[in-house]
């Protein structure tokens, strides 16, 4: 147990250190480009090339169409998923989880124009279902369905060339792990030990305004990192995860502000729909969220592919080309080729228990 705890702490600390390293590396690279006249002239060309590649992938992957499908599934699973979360959360008076959970969702993840949805969330969080096996099974299946659909979509976008054999037990463990780990993070965020720190910081006028902008950004950034790390079936480079999550968060914050301004000032939803105005607003917001999330995972895939190709060009001695041939009988069914870093190959050999041939 102690070894497991140490390995978990070591992995978390390594992840945080690698993310900080990527941040400093990107800041240093930006500084070099801005202070070198030759590199400064290349910025426009590099950005244009990357944008063309990115939008080509977005179009090829059908991000807009996939987002529409996931919006429909989200609407069907939204209330059952909230109910499932409420069902498995312990009802501890000192934690006051429901109230804090609602306030954080409303403040950071819902646009101000969809405030009527708050009443639905409030009612769902207050009405605890009687715990019985039938309710638990139904809500588990509904919640797992959205988890699996999102995971399959991420795997396809990340160009997973062949899927591992279906293992229901491992998928259920990963699903429950996602929920439990997410709840632990939420409890840490909402606990009485962390909230006073934030409230004390908000008392300082110099920090109050900055925290009101920084806190939603940090929460959303952590959510993107968590989503892009846990859901895909394949391991992604941390540098690609950090960059993809950062730009996705930046786009999300900007789009949320623009969406609120548009709804409040440039539309007449209230006059046309009356009390039902929250429905199309919420629907549109969920769709926009999925476009940003899927666009973010496409960005992660493009950055990861670009980083690998740069490593191959700059340090060809550090990579190995692997070829996997799959036969049925004597007939070649499929041939997969890719480059892998020698470090990753050593880790793979250690996992498989094979001696690496140097």
Helices and strands in order:
Blueprint: H1 2-35, H2 37-61, H3 63-88, H4 97-109, H5 117-126, H6 133-157, H7 168-190, H8 195-203, H9 205-230, H10 238-265, H11 269-273, H12 278-314, E1 319-328, E2 331-341, H13 342-352
Antiparallel strand pairs: 1-2
How would you describe what is shown here?
The chain is mainly alpha-helical and about 350 residues long. The protein has 2 domains: about 65-315, no CATH class; about 315-358, no CATH class. It has 13 helices and 2 strands. It has helices at about 1-35, 35-60, 65-90, 95-110, 115-125, 135-155, 170-190, 195-205, 205-230, 240-265, 270-275, 280-315, 340-350, and strands at about 320-330, 330-340. Strands 1-2 form a two-stranded antiparallel ribbon. Strand 1 and strand 2 form a beta hairpin. The longest helix is centred in the C-terminal third of the chain and has 37 residues, at about 280-315.
Number-wise, the strands total 2
What structural class do helix, strand and pairing data support? mainly alpha
**Mean pLDDT, as a whole number?**
69
Total helices: the number is: 13
**Helix amount:** over 70%
Oligomer: single chain
Search tags:
358 residues, globular, single chain, 2 strands, two-stranded antiparallel ribbon, mainly alpha, 2 domains, 13 helices
Question: What's a quick, concise take on this entry?
Answer:
The protein is mostly helical.
């Amino acid at each position: 147990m102690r070894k497991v705890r140490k390995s978990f702490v070591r992995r978390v600390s390594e992840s945080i250190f690698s993310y900080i390293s990527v941040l400093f590396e990107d800041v240093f690279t930006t500084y070099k480009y801005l202070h070198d006249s030759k590199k400064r002239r290349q910025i426009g060309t590099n950005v244009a090339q990357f944008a063309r590649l990115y939008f080509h992938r977005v179009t090829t992957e059908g991000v807009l169409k996939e987002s529409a499908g996931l919006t429909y599934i989200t609407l069907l699973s939204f209330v059952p998923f909230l109910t499932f979360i409420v069902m498995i959360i312990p009802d501890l008076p000192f934690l006051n989880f429901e109230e804090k959970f609602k306030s954080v969702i409303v403040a950071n993840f819902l646009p101000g124009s969809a405030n009527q949805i708050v009443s639905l969330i409030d009612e769902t969080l207050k009405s605890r279902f009687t715990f019985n096996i039938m309710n638990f099974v139904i809500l588990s299946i509904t919640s797992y369905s959205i988890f699996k659909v999102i995971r399959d979509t991420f795997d396809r976008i990340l160009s997973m060339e062949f899927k591992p054999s279906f293992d229901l037990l491992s998928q259920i463990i990963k699903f429950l792990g996602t929920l439990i780990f997410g709840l632990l993070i939420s409890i840490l965020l909402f606990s009485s030990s962390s909230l006073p720190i934030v409230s004390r910081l908000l008392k300082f006028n110099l920090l109050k305004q900055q925290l009101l902008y920084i806190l939603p950004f940090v929460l959303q950034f952590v959510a993107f990192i968590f989503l892009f790390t846990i859901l895909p079936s394949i391991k992604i480079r941390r540098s690609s995860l950090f960059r993809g999550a950062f730009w996705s968060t930046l786009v999300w914050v900007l789009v949320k502000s623009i969406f609120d301004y548009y709804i409040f000032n440039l539309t007449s939803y209230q006059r046309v729909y009356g009390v039902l105005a929250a429905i199309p607003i919420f629907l549109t917001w969920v769709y926009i969220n999925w476009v940003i999330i899927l666009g973010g995972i496409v960005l992660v895939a493009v950055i990861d592919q670009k980083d690998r190709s740069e490593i191959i060009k700059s340090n060809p001695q550090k990579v190995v080309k692997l070829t996997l041939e799959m036969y049925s009988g004597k007939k070649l069914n499929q041939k997969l080729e890719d480059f892998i870093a020698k470090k990753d190959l050593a880790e793979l050999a250690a996992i498989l228990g094979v001696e690496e041939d140097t």
